[in-house]
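Minutes, project huddle
Topic: does the predicted pose make sense with flavin-adenine dinucleotide bound?
PN asked that the exact inputs be recorded in the minutes so nobody has to dig through chat later. Recorded below.
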Amino acid sequence: MSIARNLLLRASKSPWLARQMTQRAFARRAVRKFMPGEELGDALGAAATLQSAGIGSIITRLGETLTGERNTDEVREHYISAMADVARRGLSTVISIKPTQLGLDSSMAECGRQLEALAQAAHEHGAFIWMDMEDSSYVDRTLELYERVKSVYPKTGLAMQAYLYRTPKDLERLMPLRPVVRLVKGAYAEPANVAFPKKADTDAAFVELGETLLAASKEGKAMPIFGTHDMNIVHRLVGRARSMQMTKEQFEVHMLYGIRSAEQRALTADGVGVRCLISYGSNWFPWYMRRLAERPANVWFVVKSTFA
Ligand SMILES: Cc1cc2nc3c(=O)[nH]c(=O)nc-3n(C[C@H](O)[C@H](O)[C@H](O)COP(=O)(O)OP(=O)(O)OC[C@H]3O[C@@H](n4cnc5c(N)ncnc54)[C@H](O)[C@@H]3O)c2cc1C
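Predicted holo structure (tokens), as shared on screen:
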């Protein structure tokens, strides 16, 4: 892992830095590159613009490991009312949640109860629900929760991380459920006994897992979503899907708001299903530091924003 990436990921865990940064005007300006605003209305406004360009959206309110500070009932109610807003506006936007937002740190049972309530609300709207994958200490519990929710609510998807050595086995375990998988490279600082330290190995694992998912999708046994801005990988997997005569409904590409926007439009024009994940909320610091860590050159953008 590069020194810059390591430093940024360590900084993402500092409450002191979080307090400093979220109060500074330059940091709030810089974060706008990756999020349209802190309010739900900002995210839904951006979702409407994307929808008119044929790009779908996913929304997520930032705020992980907030147990104790924020009641999980409040988080659940926020998302339930967000789903109602989405329906009222005629949007096809769906929600994505981090299990720790729903209390995974304190109670698996509580988190499962809240997740099921959200999946039920999504079901009533005919909508989808996504579960993010957090750091490796949560993977066992998140897989168990996914199995529980997916067996009752088929329109539930899970992010899986290509950088983890365990992911091929985890994917095999989920296959009987016909999983909907958002394959991502992985955004957290993980030790070398858990995840590939070299980016090239993660990239290779992504392609291999992507091909496994495409083969399963072809047989109706999984739905693959490629959650990456790596255009080499995207073109390779889209090309593979096309060589297998797969349709738009059999795979999708998801990217983050503000990253590779032109490519999101180009893929859409080329007939690929694309969705954009839009974040909002005031608790953006750890998430923002992970975005900087993905591309340390982004730090220069922050520096420039200081003088804007
Ligand atoms: C829809 C979606 C959902 C995600 N959900 C999760 C999750 O649940 N759990 C999880 O651990 N991770 C998640 N991630 C993050 C993911 O793990 C990676 O950290 C992130 O996508 C960067 O890796 P990459 O695949 O884009 O490839 P990289 O090889 O890192 O990047 C490829 C190219 O994309 C561009 N790029 C990538 N990141 C940035 C950036 N921040 N700013 C500007 N340009 C950039 C650069 O040009 C770069 O060269 C998600 C990502 C996406 C797109």
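Observations noted during the meeting:
- The radius of gyration is 18 Å.
- The mean pLDDT is 91.
No decisions taken; revisit at the next huddle.
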